[in-house]
Write a structure and sequence with these properties.
By secondary structure, this protein is mainly beta. The chain folds into 3 domains: 26-134, Immunoglobulin-like; 135-227, Sandwich (Immunoglobulin-like), CATH 2.60.40; 234-294 and 328-367, Immunoglobulin-like (Sandwich). 8% of the residues lie in helices and 32% in strands. The protein has 2 helices and 22 strands. It has helices at 2-16, 282-299; strands at 33-37, 50-54, 72-75, 82-86, 89-93, 103-108, 124-129, 137-145, 150-151, 156-160, 166-170, 176-182, 185-192, 207-214, 220-224, 234-241, 244-249, 264-268, 276-280, 330-335, 344-349, 362-367. A 4-stranded antiparallel β-sheet has the order 1-2-5-4, with no helix packed on it. The N and C termini lie far apart (113 Å).
Length: 395
Amino acid sequence: MRLSLLAALALAAGCASASPPPGGPEDLLPPKVVRITPDSNAVNVADAAVSFYFDETINDRGTGAQAVDAFFLVSPSDGAPKVDWHRRRIDVRPRNGFRPNTSYTITLRPGLGDLRSNVMKQGLTVTFSTGPTISPFRILGTVFDWAAERVAPRALLEAITSDSLSYLAESDSSGHFALGPLSEGSYLVRAILDQNGNRALDRTEAFDTLRVRVPSAGEIELRAIVRDTLPVKLASVAVTDSMTLKVTFDRVLALNDRVELAAFELRAADSVPVPLRSVTTPREESRAARDSVMRDTAAARPAVPTVAEPGAAKPPAPPRTPSVPGPYNSVTIRLQRPLAPNSRYRLRATGLRSLSGRTVTSELQFNTPRPAPPAAPADTSRRPPAPVPTPRRTP
């Protein structure tokens, strides 16, 4: 009886999850999708679920801390999808089942792995309809991490209808996305840099929204950044040198505001004001550096232009950047006279607006570094010359 119970428990444990098969050659290839039902672009689909068939057993625990259901998006969505694992087959369906006469897109995201942790690098999608036609429209565009001024791969995209139906997609490695298929109408499009993968907008996550009318005239651009209702405050002051301060704020400044020198006041520990010379933003410094490089390049340009050799490789295209430069959270302040070493100062900022438009006065104390120790004096003492060896006499 006891042996039978142990055998039953072992069998149940083996059925609960998959484990790597023992022996055999080492598997270094990621799993492949060999079949999907229903077929992409199928209509009048009556299947209860979309089934993905693989060429090997899929790890039922997903990759890392993610479960298998984290790798599937169902659009339109009625909540977290139901995902059933059957070793070499995974069934996916909406939480409340497929709606009649509705076009669907099921996305398999990159990252699904096999039992030896070989991970799929590419995702795929299947599109079909439970009615006689597939909606003809899509919203195309690119998502940017606006603060970093670069494309945002694997951002979560939503297109929300007036009745709160949500269509989902994910941006690819170049930040590009395609939302749909959609019917004509107005949609609120939202991009989220979903750092924790919970498919929801959290307070500290970057996002952007845009109202789009479908069919739209062209591709759209979404610039995701952390947005809140708090005012901007001083976060740190770094002493670059005795005449220069690098000032950082706890959030980005309003995009179109010009930062004026009058917004800052610097005082020593005895409350004596320190006169300021200028304040520059990262955008202004970048523009000045770029202009300087262009002047140097023009001055060094040869009289005869060089011609590329036939068959030479073309230089790679520069990375895409948002059409509007990103907001910044730092400025550089230059002074009219040097700061004293090993001294305390207080910087005050007033009238600076955050993205929310709110303002508040903030102050921050900082210390200048100690002076560098004096260099050791050079050894100026003269050493006696080395004795000249006496030549040996030959007999």
